[in-house]
């Protein structure tokens, strides 16, 4: 029933990639960009390149004219700019004939005098700009792109010409499609690798692949919850599913391993279920809570898609836990009963049931090679705590220092496969045009025809183009009016309004809105590639300072915005909050453990273990020459949630063994063997699952997979190498303190048993005691 409900909810999941996924809707940045710029002036251009021939050929312009007609009628297209439209408008103004001249000399004259350079950069290249509304969804952009590609084939260009459809919308659609396709393949490969690991490592239990089925059930529940809670799917939130598979399979493995352990001891299925829920249930639940606290720090990000990523992780781990607790345990109980009934029906009683019926003492299974390795490792680390911890602390300190030197990669074009056809086409367009990125300045005024307003726009534009090397040109109503009036701005408002009336509506709407808003575009070429995000941020700050220095006239305000400005803020928010989120996650994990256990030792040891992992991870990234990306910048908080779970589960089993009367050393060795195999299995399953992501052609995905593999491996290593000596050392210290207090409070004769207990717990220190 829940699967059916989840499938129904999943139908409501939407893909989000607009401004609202990067910037909070309540922020001023969003208001300026989305409400002022995108909704009023914003357009995105699908660019069609015609090349490899003489582009002034009448046959080419006729084909362009046919393409213009087909493209301009598409829903969502607000205008088409091409050499053909310019020539037709110019011919109409001169002769009253709104068609393309058939005479080649007449046509060339109109091209030379009226077609701007950005539409025809040279004799062998011409461009068509199909401008679409900036508020279109990804699905609408994809539909328009499909229609334009069809129109290109129907426009009948001469056969010797090469036609390329490109531009930012085409690139984004192609990249999203390629990434979705790649993610599907990688998740499939991830599942295959997990199956291999479960076969190799989880072979000591029956139905060894069941944890994978249980976690996939939890993922289905998560999809359903996403739909009902209206959490969109974005490029970042998609990365939550590999994480959830890794965490969810850990929950399923822990329950599966414990119930099989209880059954091997000779308990009945019902007794095994009760003991499993009694001992493993609370441990896994506490691990889940601590994991959630680690993820909770991601909610502090100012980027909505990171917040959605955190929400998806929090919902997903709860769903996977519930699936493991109720479905996983129940299915094992049912399968075991069915297996017993089948054997009894055919006259065979299982060894376990025969032992129960004869009330014989249960036979403990012999340890295998992994059990022996874990036991020896735990024993070694306990016996040499100061050497182990000294090395760990030194490496952690060095890693934390090196982490500050790890670079942050913000060039988005490096995140995608360099042989992606859409990227090659976009790079080719940049080579032809020199880049088309802009800084957009929105000007609010009481009178859009005020000569003083247009004069300031013209003066400010000239200053920026002449004094800033990376600003290649400017476009505004001031430049249009000057071109219509012999290179000067009219001195009177009436003259300006007369020129406004002569201007085509399409041109006017691109740069002016009503009676109180104008747009000034500063062309910065391909600044993202040439300057990088840091350089682009510096350039934006310089333009802001220039606007303060050359302040607009009274009653007029200027606001700088645009996609480049938004992207600067987004990258800054994704990367600058990395360290804060990590330490906030550590603090929340510590506070959560302290609240749950009310025991400083139980709260401190898992946090110390994971702190080591944070330092080691930064150091390894520096040594390996890796870079942080917007996707991997959140992994500090992420690994806290994943790694803390291993430490908490180990700690729970340690204290369970201590309650049975074992010394700290014995309890830790026993815990390392008993639960160690389950932790190693879940850790290796998670690790190999992420190994599939490393094979991705997308650098942003492969680096996410690589760093996650490193962090999961470090978390496993710390759980078996750092956690045991820290726990035993501090627990022994606490036991000695307790014993000394009791001895001090009473007489020697009344405390003989306490002395014996202290000797038993302190081993080498007993003689000194």
Automatic annotation (TrEMBL):
It is found in: Cell membrane. Keywords: Cell membrane, Membrane, Transmembrane, Transmembrane helix. The keyword Flavoprotein does not apply. The chain crosses the membrane at residues 179-202, 209-229, 235-253, 283-306, 312-335, 580-597, 604-625, 631-649, 678-701, 707-730. It holds the Pfam family MMPL. Its main location: membrane. GO terms for cellular component: plasma membrane. InterPro entries: MMPL_dom, Mycobact_MmpL, SSD. The keyword ATP-binding does not apply. It is a multi-pass membrane protein. Residues 217-334, 603-729 form the SSD domain. NCBIfam families: 2A067. PANTHER family: MEMBRANE PROTEIN MJ1562-RELATED, MEMBRANE PROTEIN YDFJ. This is Transporter, RND superfamily. It comes from Methanococcoides methylutens MM1.
